[in-house]
Amino acid sequence: MTGPALLGKRPRLRDDLLFSRPLHRGPATVHLVKDRRSGRAFELSGKERFLVGRLDGVRSLGEVGAEYAAAYGRRLGDDHWARLLWLLHQRDLLAGGATEPPVVPATRHDSVDRWARRLRQVLRPGPVAVLGVLVAALLAAVAWHAGPLWQAARPAFTDPLSLLLLGLLAWAGAATHEFAHALAAVRLGATVERINLVTLTCRIEDYAFLARRRDQLLIAAAGGLANGLVLLLVGAALAVVPGAFADRLFSAYVLVAAAQTLVNFVPIPPLDGYKMVSHLLDTLDLAPESRRYLATAPLRLSRRGGARYPRPVAIRLGLYGVWWFFVAVGTAAGVVYFVGALLTPALGALGHVLPAAVVGLTIAGWAARPRRARPSDRSSPPHQQHIEAHQRKV
């Protein structure tokens, strides 16, 4: 089918598809689209999103093509339209297809849904912000009194009963952490696919497709804030229990729970702090993309190739890449120093050599591992290549 017959067609995308807002992947701006029937997700470039977003069953391909030409100064030929329609049909993204199965309903977790309804007034930006300030103040107070707390807590770390109680309290904090993620997700419109408070797992679907960045930040922050709330409540309960054992347990728990809370906000994958920074910057695969940016910087500086990055994107990726590098180096140095200090009494000078060798081999193995194809290479619809090729010919 060519010419007027093709351009007169009025295809329509399925209404149940999910689209993300514009996101950054390296130097490119992409949109995620998800088929909720199959669970598959794809990436679209800005131009692809422009095209498929106008397939509403009202506008003809000729009208959409005119809008595309006005926006980008290029017209698409009949072969490109035919290829686009074929790809959309193959992926079953068009309405009225013969293979349209019903949408599989999301798994419901009644307890999560029930608590989300009960706490709907608490799971709002205002109360969450107040809780965030309270948790920050609590962590600052713990840091200020870290010395005396450590002195009081030291006996608890050598007492089996205290260690058992600390382990149970830490597990309870971790379970509350995962439950808080699920509550925030349900409250803000995402889907909890799986939650297990015994194995401490919580998987949230459609998280990347929430319309507001604020909602994604709240879901990512909910776990750490819940840890801070548990620290406040349990710490207050232990503080009123009399006795030396309770004092030791209180001090030890406050230190452990404060570390458990604080570590969640460190912006290193796979921690929640990393997810928060990624959402704040609207960036996919922030850590690997920042490393890729730094690794290709010599090519760009020498003008021998490398992708061109918009300045704001380059600044974000460069700063995060530098941060990641210093954290990695600092962590490796800390491991070598502390493990070496433990081994020195037994091994002498070799006490630091052994952990340094292990860390070095670990880093070498990580650097030499096969690189996975970029997600955009695996999932981006092939017709992007044809559209760009057509534009270069015009």
Description:
By secondary structure, the protein is an alpha+beta fold. It folds into 3 domains: 3-104, Outer Surface Protein A, domain 3 (Alpha-Beta Complex), CATH 3.90.930; 110-280, no CATH class; 290-297 and 306-374. The chain has helices at residues 3-7, 46-52, 61-72, 78-90, 110-118, 125-144, 146-153, 160-187, 213-239, 244-263, 272-280, 286-295, 297-301, 311-347, 350-368, 375-379, 383-393; strands spanning 18-19, 23-25, 28-34, 41-45, 191-196, 201-205. Strands 1, 2, 3 and 4 form a 4-stranded antiparallel sheet that branches. Residues 374-394 have low confidence and may be disordered.
Q: What are the salient characteristics of this protein?
A:
6 strands; globular; 4-stranded antiparallel sheet; single chain; 62% helix; Outer Surface Protein A, domain 3; alpha+beta; 394 residues; 3 domains; two-stranded antiparallel sheet; 7% strand
